[in-house]
Design a protein that fits this description.
The chain is built from 17 helices and no strands. With 462 residues, it is mainly alpha-helical. It has three domains: 1-182, MFS general substrate transporter like domains (Growth Hormone, Chain: A, Up-down Bundle), CATH 1.20.1250; 198-248; 254-457, Growth Hormone, Chain: A (Up-down Bundle), CATH 1.20.1250.
Length: 462
């Protein structure tokens, strides 16, 4: 490898930003009980500390990707890192739970700006012969953030307080800003004549997500159901408008005309919808019910992402030899069985069993994730790789939001607005049990889409 200093710097910047997003999500999960003690939040409000970040990322992921194509990806990337860094600092100093949720939303906007444009910057900076390798480094940074987050978040929370997590993210952000302005350079002048974003669909997309997610926190009230219904209608209008647009933000035609692509994306959406809230629920369970410290809870929770980090590359290589649908079906089945087992948690469940289940689900996710991404990228032509990558990222974030929304629904419907600390263990475990049962049903649907997607035709990249 004969890479220049500029190329190595670009790779470092994109890898660090990839790490920061997943590190924050997984580390803040462990810090939630400590945040609750600081601000006296209820279970629904606690879920919004995670959901607000994901909601903002999902809202801006699609339009920012198209905006970057039209105006310049490097400028958007730098803006995103600055937004992320400043909002991280604000999160560390905030004096109320409401403002923490607001700053987390702004932080999610910054994450959308950088995560959408980061891979495009990598692809433009390296030759085709090295692109797969450098994108692999970026994906590894994502898994490293997931794996390192629970342990680091627990350690920082226990010894330095939960605010230290955001201060560490601020320091990483400042370093990234410096390297970005030194080495990323400027975008080439792009002609935007005749290239205007169709914002009508984007408006309904953003509105639908906000109303749908917010409505879930008002359940079981009538207003909550009405808002969720309005959110679904708004997203349907978004799909209809994008289908008719000449320059769509979201390419619906790939879903209606390509079964392999459509089923693979639906399987990804289902998988993330069913599995993302596992760490959120178990973090609260381990600290509230089992009485573990933030550090010890983080050590337990690290089991799942470590398995994902170790076995995802192996599963990816296997998918070059074995039809990916076989591996993804095995992975989705493992996740489903693990979710059913999690629904049987009691106050006395041994920690060893919880670790074993996390290992099992992490292995299942690894067997699903890489082969599924391989299928998505192999199901389109070379001129559609960017759209395919963007669609996969959107399915991931929408799935994560759906997972948190489902958890919020059960918390709101079964626990109400009672302060989290005052809930009995039995009340809390009941909500956790029904959440996991719901996730297992959703995951079982993913088995169908994984197996019935069809087979990949090797070398189908023309």
């Amino acid at each position: 490898m004969d890479w220049t200093k500029k190329q190595l710097s670009i790779l470092s910047v994109v890898a660090v930003t990839s790490f920061m997003g997943t590190f924050l999500i997984s580390s803040v999960n462990v810090a939630l009980p400590a945040i609750e003690k600081t601000f006296g939040l209820n279970a629904v409000s606690l879920s919004w500390i995670i959901t607000s970040f994901l909601l903002a990322t999902a809202m801006f992921l699609l339009p920012v990707g198209r905006w970057g194509d039209l105006t310049g990806i490097r400028r958007i990337f730098k803006l995103g890192v600055m937004i992320f860094t400043l909002s991280s600092l604000a999160c560390g100093f905030t004096g109320s739970g409401v403002w923490l949720i607001i700053f987390r939303f702004i932080q999610g906007i910054g994450a959308a700006f950088s995560s959408t444009t980061g891979p495009a910057i990598l692809v433009s900076a390296f030759s085709p012969a090295h692109r797969g390798r450098v994108l692999g480094f970026s994906v590894s940074a994502v898994y490293l953030g997931l794996a390192f987050g629970p342990f680091a978040g627990g350690f920082l929370t226990q010894y330095f307080g939960w605010r230290s997590i955001f201060f560490v993210s601020t320091a990483l952000g400042i370093l990234t800003i410096i390297i970005s302005f030194l080495f990323l350079g400027k975008d080439q002048v792009i002609s935007v004549s005749g290239k205007k974003m169709d914002l009508k669909g984007t408006f309904f997309y953003m509105l639908g997500l906000i109303v749908l997610v917010y409505g879930s926190s008002l359940i079981p009230g009538l207003s909550g159901w009405l808002l969720m219904g309005g959110g679904v209608i708004s997203l349907i209008l978004f799909w209809m408008l994008e289908s008719r647009s000449l320059l769509p933000v979201f390419e619906t035609r790939l879903f209606t005309g390509n079964r392999l692509f459509a089923f693979s994306n639906l399987a990804a959406l289902i998988n993330y919808s069913a599995t993302f809230a596992i760490v959120f629920l178990l973090s609260l369970y381990l600290q509230k019910v089992q009485g573990l410290s933030p550090r010890d809870a983080g050590i337990v929770l690290i089991a799942q992402p470590v398995m994902m980090a170790i076995f995802s590359p192996i599963a990816g290589r296997l998918s070059d030899r074995i039809q990916p649908r076989i591996l993804t079906t095995i992975g989705m089945t493992m996740c489903t069985l693990g979710l059913v087992a999690f629904s049987l948690l009691t106050p006395a469940t041994p920690i060893g069993i919880i670790v074993g289940l996390l290992v099992w689900v992490g292995l299942g996710f690894a067997f699903f994730s890489s082969p599924n991404m391989n299928t998505i990228m192999s199901s389109v032509g070379k001129n559609q790789l960017g759209l395919a990558s963007g669609s996969a990222a959107t399915m991931r974030v929408i799935g994560q939001i759906t997972s948190m929304t489902i958890a919020t629904l059960f918390f709101a419907g079964m626990l109400g607005r009672e302060a989290f600390d005052s809930l009995s263990d039995q009340e809390f475990i009941k909500a956790v049990k029904w959440s996991f049962l719901c996730f297992s049903v959703i995951s079982s649907a993913g088995i169908y889409f994984s197996y019935n997607r069809g087979s990949v035709v090797r070398g189908n990249t023309e």
